[in-house]
TrEMBL record:
It is found in: Cell membrane; Membrane. This is Membrane protein insertase YidC. The lineage of its organism: Bacteria, Bacillati, Actinomycetota, Actinomycetes, Micrococcales. It is a multi-pass membrane protein. Belongs to the OXA1/ALB3/YidC family. Type 1 subfamily. The keyword Membrane applies. InterPro entries: YidC/ALB3/OXA1/COX18, YidC/Oxa/ALB_C, YidC_ALB_C. The chain crosses the membrane at residues 20-40, 87-111, 137-160, 195-219. The keyword Transmembrane applies.
Length: 233
């Protein structure tokens, strides 16, 4: 299904295979994750700045919703005008997540496809504590403790990420009872829980992909903590 990625994957496959001759494959995956996240760091800094701007204009947004909540078309125009005047993009913050999706697809393909571009996938024989990088939780067998440890770590990271997300949400005031404000409150209840999606992914995807996801989630947790203390508007 993802074979269309193979022309792009072959150079990455050869580089990872070459590096794995000198370093254990789990360490190679961790280093690869760090390189990807370092490349995305400027986007994440920009996302944090956009979040600070949204917090700054939150009272104005609530006022606009209070004034025009009964007129959806007028409300949409006023909200767009406010974002434009303040130089804040309503969609800011989506780009880092969108960029990571093809990366996850690439990692999944690297640790699941028997062949890449017509060549034997040389990465499939590598292991983590004796468990193949291609293994799944349902077929782990004696390697079940390794998967359970990875899933457990993913659960801890997801819980900490949920708490971190809740602590920095911008919520409408109780006096704001427009439909849009109610939608915002609903999203604020849902968004923190989305961090647990990575736990499900770790449980169902190959071990190599799960290791990438856990490392990436750990990086995100630490990066948000650091960026919120070092980056200002």
């Amino acid at each position: 299904m993802l074979s269309w990625l193979d022309p792009l994957l072959l150079p990455a496959h050869h580089l990872i295979d070459l590096t794995a001759q000198w370093l254990p494959m789990p360490l190679v995956i961790v280093l690869l994750t760090i390189l990807v996240r370092l490349a995305l760091h400027p986007l994440n800094r920009a996302t944090h700045r956009a979040s600070l701007h949204r917090q700054r204009i939150a009272p104005q947004l609530q006022q606009v919703r209070a004034w025009h909540g009964k007129d959806p078309e007028r409300l949409q125009r006023e909200l767009l005008d406010l974002h434009r005047r303040e130089g804040v993009s309503p969609a800011a913050g989506c780009l880092p997540a969108l960029v990571q999706l093809p990366v996850i697809m690439i990692i999944y393909r690297l640790f699941s496809a028997p062949q890449i571009g017509g060549q034997t996938n040389a990465l499939l024989h590598h292991t983590l504590l004796g468990v193949p990088m291609t293994a799944h939780l349902a077929t782990a067998g004696a390697g079940l403790p390794v998967f359970l440890g990875l899933v457990g770590l993913s659960l801890v990271v997801a819980y900490l990420t949920m708490r971190q997300t809740r602590a920095h949400l911008v919520t409408p005031t109780p006096a704001t009872d427009s439909p849009q404000a109610e939608v915002a409150r609903t999203m604020n209840r849902i968004m923190p829980m989305m961090s647990f999606g990575s736990v499900f992914a770790v449980a169902v995807l190959p071990l190599g992909t799960g290791l990438y996801l856990v490392t990436s989630a750990l990086w995100t947790l630490g990066e948000r903590y650091a960026v919120r203390r070092l980056v200002t508007v």
